[in-house]
Amino acid sequence: MLNVENINVSYGNIRAIHGVSLSVQSGEILTIIGANGAGKSTVLKALVGLLRSTTGDIRFEGRSIASLLPSEIVRCGIALVPEGRRVFPRMTVQDNLMLGGYGHKKSTIKQDLSTMFEMFPRLAERKSQLAGTLSGGEQQMLAMGRALMSRPRLLLLDEPSMGLAPLLVQQIFEAILFINSQGTTLLVVEQNARIALEIADRAYVLETGTIVLSGDAEELARNEQVRHAYLGE
Q1: For residue 226, which of 120, 125, 171, 209 sits 20 to 30 Å off, Cα-Cα?
Q2: Strand, coil or helix: what is 200?
Q3: pLDDT, position 143
Q4: The pLDDT of residue 145
Q5: DSSP per-residue string spanning 87-156
Q6: What are residue 203's DSSP bridge partners?
Q7: Which helix (H) or strand (E) holds 199?
Q8: For 38, left (φ over 0), alpha (ψ -120 to 50), or beta?
Q9: Considering the entire predicted model, what is its pTM?
Q10: Domains of the chain by range and CATH?
Q11: For residues 61 and 78, is the Cβ–Cβ distance under 8 A?
Q12: Burial status of residue 14 (CB atoms within 10 A of its CB: 0-12, 13-18, 19 or more)
């Protein structure tokens, strides 16, 4: 579905990503784990056109998207839930969701709103509430719902558990599994390696901008290097 070949991304003179190559298979949950500052978010930003690679290529369903605008990449079928949620705080929950469906027919947006409210009942209860007054967990649900309103075939999640209480983390990852069960492929960037490896099919380990390990998520969870560095064992 997605093939990333030898991308390099810099912030000014600082190289953040060094020759990263990875693939995402249709229907799976793929995770990228790594320490804070390893470059995980930078990879996602490159995939959606917010940052540009100076080398290599990014291909989605056989088509190069490396030179496309972020809005064009969304229309191709990729959506990003950014780190920190980034909801529009002075807009209502419902209006935030409707923005995610921008470009779709009104009938489609109405249908998808109903689907999001069924998936996230807390959002239905607060649909007229300003997004900025929601809790962190509710804002994460809203950010996920907004991205899903674009009907992506590939959903990118950047640190979905950040700043959330353990119970809310569990709810968010249950939602991730449900979204995947409905046919959406997911790429999850997550600092909480334990829970990420529990839900993922495959995983990559990123260190200082370089992929150092990859493979089946269960196997990586048993890897001595991963257990010591990321699982606290």
Answers
A1: 171
A2: coil
A3: 93
A4: 92
A5: --TTSBHHHHHHHHTTTS-HHHHHHHHHHHHHH-HHHHHTTTSBGGGS-HHHHHHHHHHHHHTT--SEEE
A6: 31, 215
A7: helix 193-199
A8: alpha
A9: 0.89
A10: 2-230 (3.40.50.300)
A11: no
A12: exposed
Collapsing DSSP to helix, strand or coil, 75 comes out as: helix
Question: Sheet of 2-11: strands edge to edge?
Answer: 14-24, 2-11, 57-60, 63-64
Amino acid at 186: L
The alpha carbon of residue 60 and the mean position of all alpha carbons in its chain are separated, in whole angstroms, by 15
**To 10 degrees, what angle do helices 106-119 and 166-181 make?**
130
Return the residue matching tokens 């030179």: 67
**Per-residue pLDDT in tens (0 to 9) along the chain, 233 residues:** 999 999 999 888 888 999 999 999 999 999 999 888 889 999 999 999 999 999 999 999 999 999 999 999 999 999 999 887 788 889 999 999 988 888 778 888 888 898 889 888 889 998 999 988 998 888 988 999 999 999 999 999 999 888 778 888 888 898 899 999 999 999 999 888 889 999 999 999 999 999 999 999 999 999 888 888 887 65
Place of tokens 């996920």: 144
